[in-house]
Amino acid sequence: MLKSLIRTIRGPSDDPRMAHISRPLPRGLTDEEVLEALDRALAANPDPHFLVESLRPALREVTGRDYEVLDRSVQDVTGAFTKTMVMIRDGPVGLWPGYAARSYPMLAASAKAEDTRRAIAAAEGEGGEPSEPSPTDPVGKPGWTPPPALPREPVVADTALQEPVGTADGGASHVERPG
Q1: Which pLDDT does position 92 carry in this prediction?
Q2: What is the pTM for the complete model shown?
Q3: How far apart are CA 54 and CA 37, in angstroms?
C-alpha cells in the first residue's frame, strides 16, 4: 500500500522512452521496471514497431511475470503521422478471438507476411509460370474455355428493302442518288 501511495504522489515517469507505453500500467508494475524492459527490448531490436514482439520477453526477464503486450499504434490516412505505442496488461483482458492469430506488428511488414503473400499468389497462378494452353485450359485458367466461334454467313444485300423513304430535302434515311 505504501508503494501505491508513493507512486500516486510521484506520478508517472517523464522519461521520453515511456512515450511508447500506453497508460495505465498494470497494478504492481513500476515505471522503473518498464524502462528496464524497454532498454532490453530496444537492445534486441531498435525498431519500436517491433515492441509488441520484443517487450513481452523483456518484461518476463525483468519482473518474472507474464504480461500481455498489445499494439496501440496509430497512423493517419496519409501516413505522415505515426505514433508507435503498446499497452501492457496483466492477463488476457479484452482479447477478441482472432487477436492472437494476427501477425505482428501491423505497421511493419514481416517476412512471414511476405511468405504468405507469395504462397497465395503462387496458388492463384500469378506468381509462378503460366500453364501451357490446351483444349480444356486455353489460357492457363482452370475451368475456363472460350465460347465457340460464330458461324460466318454471307450478308445478302436486298435492294428491295433499301428503298428511299422521303426525299433528300426532307431528310430521308435511304436516299437514292440519280446515277
Answers
A1: 63
A2: 0.48
A3: 9
